Amino acid sequence: MPSAVERLRDQTETKPRATPLKVAVLLPCYNEEAAIADVVRSFRMVLPGADIYVYDNNSRDGTVERALEAGAIVRRERRQGKGAVVRRMLADVEADLYLLADGDLTYDPLAAPVLIDRLISEQLDMVVGAREGEGMLARRGHAAGNRLFNKVVERFFGPGFTDILSGYRVITRRFAKSFPSASKGFEIETELAIHALDLRLSVAEIPVRYGKRPENSASKLSTFRDGFRILWTIAMMHRAVKPFKFFGTIALGLATASTILGLPVILTYLETGLVPRFPTAILAATVMQLSVLSLVCGVIVDAVAEGRREAKRLRYLELKGA
């Protein structure tokens, strides 16, 4: 009679291996004819079992043709903007893991297996490739803006990332399918980071080389226009995710302004029994009422936000992990 240990060993040896995880490489593209073929071939070389999707966003050059020649699965998103493309990709593609990158050859494909291995080995929900190298030095305005946005996000939502704007990341299916994206453009990366921080998901960063674009390839990112959109997105998500802090800050500012306006009126009244500055008194009282209303709004919206957070968490838990 075989022992219990021997029987367990036999069962383990005859048990079929787990099905390999299905990986999808997602490449949003707009006028990336110069680089997209090399990007597709490079990811095919380092991730031979992955499905590589190129989502064209109304390109006016030969992006689609070059991607097809390189063997990518090409689909189209007519609504302009990277946020719209990423939203469509995550909704349409079925996989266990999603690797998001750009089609401009700035991200190092050799880092892809490292990102995936880190996510699987530590059972994370997202691993971000934190950019470093000559590509970050090429446009100093972008690098300075990136540092500013990271500090703002850390102040509003807590620590977790040093490069929230990186377009190179791997996420699980449960993260992708529970992510309520609403972004239109390059603010999509900020939205991904804040979603992870809001639900307190397990995330990590790995430094990756970030190179320069090919000479005949132009960046679609506008330093000031897209920078303003990213800041606006952070502010609006702060209102949605942490409404009590958002409206409470406004209430505090209004209460302070009301006190500054009304205190001289009150002191004069205590000394003389008169209110000589009636308009100022009315203004101070009105501003204080607005302060109270803002505080009440914060309390109410905070309860709504907590309900939305619980709904997102339940949706996340319903989905199968990697």
TrEMBL record:
Pfam families: Glycos_transf_2. Keywords: Membrane, Transferase, Transmembrane, Transmembrane helix. It comes from Hansschlegelia quercus. The keyword Transmembrane helix applies. GO terms for molecular function: transferase activity. It comes from the Bacteria. This is Glycosyltransferase. Residues 25-175 form the Glycosyltransferase 2-like domain. The chain crosses the membrane at residues 246-270, 282-305.
